[in-house]
Amino acid sequence: MSLEAKIETLTAAIVDLTERLSAIESAPVESAKTEEETPAAPEQSITREEIQSMCLAIVRDDRNKKTAIKKTLSTFGATLVKDVPVDNLGDLKTALEAL
Questions:
Q1: Residue 20 CA to chain centroid, in angstroms?
Q2: pLDDT-derived band at 99, boundaries 50, 70, 90
């Protein structure tokens, strides 16, 4: 096989690969995850203000629960609501609702 023939073969292969890659890039991507593998999204995002309001309402109802709130915050490594990581706000809300 001559050098020119090899170059033509390689050029044709490159053109073919380019066309295939273009087709792949423009094709819609299908999600490989099933519904079971997808983590459940929270019903609504919980804000620090909501948590602070909950704490105030709990303390207004029963001042003795202030220490319980502080203890609950400490389980999340915090002394104030603003110190609780955003990922743990849902768990904190659940813990506060149990008080």
A1: 33
A2: confident
For the entire predicted model, the pTM comes to 0.54
- What gap in Å lies between CA 96 and CA 69, rounded to an integer? 7
pLDDT digits (tens, 9 = 90+) for 6-33: 999 999 999 988 888 888 877 666 655 5
Q: Report the alpha-carbon distance of residue 73 to residue 91 in Å, rounded.
A: 11
Report the distance separating Cα 73 and Cα 87, nearest Å: 14
What is the three-class DSSP state of 34? coil
Do 99 and 72 form a contact (C-beta atoms < 8 A)? yes
Asked if residue 79 lies in contact with residue 72, where contact means CB atoms within 8 angstroms, the answer is no
Domain ranges of the chain: 48-97
Give the CA-trace dihedral at 34, 40, 44, 50, to 10 degrees.
Answer: -160
